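Lecture 7, part B: from sequences to assemblies.

Below are the input chains for today's worked example.
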Amino acid sequence: MSGDGAAKQIGGYPAYMRESIERVEATRKQRLQDGPPAPMSADERDEVLREWHPDYKADKKRDLAVGPSKGARMPHEVANLLEAYPLVDPAAIDLSKPDLDVQVLILGGGGAASVAALFAREEGIPTEDILMVTKLRHGDCNSIMAQGGIQAADREPDSPAIHYLDVLGGGHYTNRPELVRALVSDGPMMIDWHEKLGVLYDKVDGRYLEAHGGGTSRMRMHSAKDYTGMELMRVLRDEVRNVGIPVLEFAPAAELLLDANGHAAGAILFNLETEEMTIVRARATVLATGGFGRLHIQGYPTTNHYGATADGLVLAYRAGARIIDMDSVQYHPTGVAYPAAILGQLATEKLRNQGAEPINASGESFVYPLEPRDVEAAAIIRECYGRDNGVTTPSEIRGVWLDTPMIDAVHGPGTLKSRLAAMWMMWHRHGIDITVDPALVFPTLHYQNGGVEIDDEGRTGVPGLLAGGEVAGGVHGKNRLMGNSLLDYNVFGRRAGISAAAWAKDHEAGELSLAHVRGYVAGLRSAGIEPDRVAPMILPDYRREAVLARRLDVL
Amino acid sequence: MDDGKRTQIYIMGKAYDVPVGITIMDAMEYAGYRFTRGAGCRSGFCGACGTVYRKEGEYRLEFALACQEMVEEGMHLTQLPFTPAPRASYALDELDPSENVLLQFYPEIARCVSCNTCTKACPQDIEVMDYIQAALRGDLERVTELSFDCIQCGLCAMRCPADIKHYHVAQMARRLHGVSASPEPEHLSVRMAELSDGTYDAELDELVAMDVDGLKARYAQRRIEPASEEGS
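Predicted structure of the full complex, as structure tokens:
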């Protein structure tokens, strides 16, 4: 059943991998007694990042040649999309008769979009004057896949100030201070809002069950088993449906529209199936389009959903918004390395906060299990490629063990299956029981750390254009901590929704224009960029090349 | 992954040779399909890729998530677009959980004939029929417990001969259970009061204004709270 061919399987693993598992088992008792290795010092962290983290490979990036953040360094895969021509020819479209006219247009169908929609309504925008539009379905997003939890400093030994320091240190002090302040200060309020919506966080004796995450100094990770993102997203989606906010699905935005004053004024959508365009005029536009995992930066597999192609980033940049911290990419330390059929899918950090340690092929622990994500990922890459202590799978993927049986050994039998039900199910489908055997993991492309520049009210540099969630940058600096993305989309989805409502109350939408796109195209031409590249990408293409090569493009 | 071994499957009636050991979704892309509908998170959490198949020689239809299920020799596959299902609208804070509100809002649950088809269709191995029976009794806690892992793919509702919209019923039950029987911890309201009183303002003002060297020194001095069993 597993993805690695015909080798004889024992408990889901080929026999040769069993030899390494036996070495993991042989040291487990001693490791449980000794506890994990100590956390790294600041110098040790710097060294492993510099030498092994993919972000530090100079030849994988370049300076952007055009636009308001010209000169900013970023991966080629991102620069390729920003240095690309539009899908819509500005000369070939009549903007004088918009098909839809709303007060607040929200681009996106995930967590940030849902929260923004609900709070725009709370602020008094009539329900029918809000429109959510999304490329796939409402809820097909990264928010729904988040497993481990959401941070909020609500326990007595904790405080927003301690949370602030954890976030800054994790982000290498590159975060925007006012954004982090908003993030940590609104945390408890957002959890309270979730409670009132009926979100079911894990509780024990009337208190939240809270745990550490990588790089936290206090336990503040709230969870709903390992379905935290799904529980949140399905409740938010249910509430959007409950209050009747209109949602247009399979309708990605191809371009943002501005008015004569340079204010955001809506978007051009297109129907993913009929390919018909729709022109939406809006007083305020919220960008909540998520991140870029499907760009497969440096060839990495990704945990991200099918639509994570950085469309919003491209559109906002053409409209004049600045972007920040796009040079840094989050590789989650533990993506699935085996079996190949689920390569790169997420093995939640919660496995580690519940006691599972990364272990090398010889059965040794080699890293503190809860370093910040970039450090933990770099340490795993070093173990596999610098020290040759990884396990190689039948498909030539290297990985290290995540010693999942430690969870029940620490907390008692049954803990893993109840607190990590999704993880248990994922490997169980491939014949592996992670309560009995460890899981093989390697870093996977997970999160867009940077993004569109916003202020602490979710405002971009383009008046009337707000942004929140993964598409926005600055909150996490060069590295996000576990549990701060769910918090981010709530805090900044809310702030963007409120700001959008405030802007919409004071501004009429003017005459629609694509002058910014014409200007951007002129910039591309004068930078000598060949017109063969177009963006936004909308969806990745995973069709087999042999099929595409023989394709007759008639329809 | 591609070690040369092939297996034959049928996608909407046409035969394709695809590598063994890959998911249905990957196999369809290998064959040349490009998804617009029917692909979402690609990790088993969003419910976009509900798939129906029949194996060669079998009379029974099987159900799966295309992103999670492996291809097998002789599978005849069809993807199902997400099917519309009516859902009730309600104001959560105006409901009385002591009455059987689920039956009021979703009276069709009384039509359940206990055929268990919903449970057999569930790719998450949820005891769907059992939670519908619990819903009939108004047992919100039991519905919550049994339905918690539901990804709302809708395969249950598509199969149900009584036209029950199981996943909407369960969503309502969980939310109602959350607001009525799972009270908000006191430490959260205490912290919210402190925040609105400005208890942390001075400390945050100081940190926001602090230079990087100052922050690094503070960070290095952090006390790491030992992990305890419950974290409370």
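Note for the exam: Confidence is low (pLDDT under 50) at residues 1-6 of chain A. Keep this in mind when comparing with the next example.
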